[in-house]
């Protein structure tokens, strides 16, 4: 089978009209509800959206839920000025009475008190913040979703081979190192995850597919981070026009070196929390959704650019909604001394093969 054009014919700029790809959107929404979320007849499924949310996605998902025989309950409210601010009380009341919840709101609530309460109750929470029609069609694609999951499992296995740690560099200037979990620490973390799955909190919830995590100690990150893809929040930046350089010591951003207009906005955003926890690295993630081939400015999608590295900064909690995500494009990644990705191209044999099967890296021998 030739992969000379797989995935590329659907990549373009969304047309801004109400019926844009309505058939394809219905198919992705149905796949989300039936296969990914495994919604069952009779379940009460709450969808919440703010006024910045694409109504086409909400309507298609609600229709898919109803077709299954479940009960879609759709809640709309005003767009908040920042992430993780409390929603109107009726939203929380509905969420805490649901069998499953889907978040489409652009000003997401994943670190809010409401989410903490819902998780404590064991309610599956699916974060699809800022989803629009084109994003859903490309990122929740029934034709390649299982192959993407296979790639993710293989990627995770490669990262778990680390005995000492990792290094990430990029053409824009990123150069960081960080330590891996010991086998004992990794075993305990996996056991905690399996317990959460068994309790029902993770099996149907979580984030959009196409993103993984480095099994790494984030308080050991040292070096230089250069975000050259996107950073959000602050909402005033999003897709980055000029790279933003940061110095990191022991998992904490110590200096934002860049001093252009976008960098100054980011500096002020961090500073306005007056909280040292806002500068702490909390996760280092991998992106591998084959539907995301470029930066769009929508962070839930940008985090999944195929081959990118994403870094989350800020110990977000209901008391401290200080969290941002930044994207490093075209990274080179070492697992111990093994180079697995070079300038955004996977070179580790298994990952290289699976990437090509997904229609990526078509120009690489």
Write up this protein.
By secondary structure, this protein is of the alpha+beta class. It has two domains: about 20-140, Thermophilic metalloprotease (M29) (Thermophilic metalloprotease-like, 3-Layer(aba) Sandwich), CATH 3.40.1830; about 145-355, no CATH class. Helices cover about 30% and strands about 25% of the residues. The protein has ten helices and 19 strands. It has an eight-stranded antiparallel beta sheet with strand order 13-12-9-6-5-17-18-19. The protein has a six-stranded antiparallel beta sheet with strand order 8-14-15-16-10-11. A hairpin with a 2-residue loop joins strand 12 (about 245-250) and strand 13 (about 250-255). Helix 1 crosses helix 2 (about 55-70), helix 1 (about 20-35) crosses helix 5 (about 135-140) and helix 6 packs antiparallel against helix 10 (about 350-355). It is globular. The relative contact order is 0.13. Residues about 1-5 have low confidence and may be disordered.
């Amino acid at each position: 089978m030739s992969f000379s054009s797989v995935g590329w014919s659907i990549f373009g700029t969304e047309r801004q009209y109400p019926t844009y790809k309505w058939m394809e959107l219905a198919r992705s929404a149905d796949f989300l509800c039936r296969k990914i979320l495994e919604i069952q007849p009779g379940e009460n499924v709450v969808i919440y959206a703010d006024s910045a949310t694409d109504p086409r996605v909400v309507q298609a998902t609600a229709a898919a839920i109803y077709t299954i025989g479940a009960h879609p309950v759709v809640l709309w409210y005003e767009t908040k000025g920042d992430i993780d601010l409390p929603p109107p009380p009726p939203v929380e009341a509905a969420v805490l009475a649901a069998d499953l919840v889907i978040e489409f709101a652009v000003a997401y609530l994943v670190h809010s008190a409401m989410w903490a309460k819902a998780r404590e109750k064991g309610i599956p929470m699916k974060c699809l913040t800022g989803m629009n029609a084109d994003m859903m069609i490309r990122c929740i694609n029934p034709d390649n979703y299982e192959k993407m999951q296979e790639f993710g499992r293989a990627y995770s296995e490669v990262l778990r081979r680390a005995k000492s740690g990792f290094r990430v560099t990029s053409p824009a200037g990123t150069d960081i190192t960080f330590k891996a979990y010991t086998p004992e620490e990794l075993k305990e973390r996996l056991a905690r995850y399996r317990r959460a799955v068994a309790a029902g909190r993770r099996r149907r919830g979580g984030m959009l597919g196409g993103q993984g995590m480095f099994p790494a100690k984030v308080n050991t990150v040292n070096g230089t981070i250069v975000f050259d893809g996107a950073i959000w929040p602050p909402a005033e930046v999003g897709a980055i026009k000029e790279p933003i350089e940061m110095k990191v010591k022991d998992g904490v951003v110590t200096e934002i070196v860049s001093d252009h207009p976008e960098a100054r906005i980011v500096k002020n955003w961090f500073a306005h929390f007056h909280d040292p926890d806002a500068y702490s690295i909390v996760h280092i993630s991998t992106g591998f959704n084959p539907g995301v081939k470029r930066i769009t400015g929508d962070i839930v999608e940008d985090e999944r650019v195929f081959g990118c590295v994403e870094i989350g900064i800020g110990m977000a909690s209901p008391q401290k909604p200080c969290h941002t995500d930044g994207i490093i494009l075209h990274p080179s990644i070492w697992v111990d001394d093994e180079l697995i990705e070079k300038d955004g191209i996977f070179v580790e044999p298994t990952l290289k093969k699976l990437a090509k099967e997904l229609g990526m890296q078509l120009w690489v021998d």
